[in-house]
Amino acid sequence: MPALLRPIAMLALLAACSRPASSPALETSDDAQACIRQLLEIHRGLLEYSKRHGHPPEGSGARFLAALIEDGIWPNDAEHARLLTCPGVAPERLGLDPADPAGWYRDLARLDGAHSAYAARDNRNFPLQSYPQSGAQPVVACDNHGGMNHPGVTNVLYADGRVVSYELELEITTGHLPAGSTRVPIGPEAPESLAELRRLSLD
Strand (E) positions, 106-183? Predict the structure, then answer.
């Protein structure tokens, strides 16, 4: 097996990938692997949320994620606050105090996309009725707003519990992105060839 296909797919629940241009088995940087682990923790949190409330969080973007703390699934402590933003982007770049992670989500009334380097489900335009569900439904991703969160790779959590890694060069090679692209667009900017990623919000 080529070195590029090492089994971090185990972290993606050993599920088959629904898109041939998206590999859940890329050899990636340490922070990208940490991101996969965090997304799987978010998946477990969303499962628990749905178990308790009978439905997934109803907010969009950062509010979708913060519901795990706001609605009592997770405590608002440093460990869980860090899970709600991608480890590939330093908190300082988001205007967050790295010495006080528990403070990042203390004032949830003022929460917006600037509080996380993850994009999450756009429930306003693409309501997520249940969780888990079809692997065609993305729920959380590296937002790539200021450039890719990880070198060459964007991780996306789907509603069946898979984490799929979109490799920038592969998306260009297969024609999903134009030559010279420097990131995988997430949210409304995603091209028709990656239309599933439009179901995520950067807000």
Answer: 118-121, 138-142, 153-158, 163-167
How many domains does the chain divide into?
1
Domain around 92 = 3-201
Helix residue spans in the chain (DSSP H): 30-53, 62-70, 78-83, 168-173
Q: Do 25 and 77 touch, CB atoms closer than 8 A?
A: no
Q: What is the pTM of this model?
A: 0.86
Would you say 58 and 119 are in contact if contact means Cβ atoms under 8 Å apart?
Answer: no
What backbone torsions phi and psi does residue 94 show, to the nearest 5 degrees? -95, 0
**pLDDT for 96-106, tens place per residue?**
999 999 889 88
**CA gap 97, 113 in Å, rounded:** 16
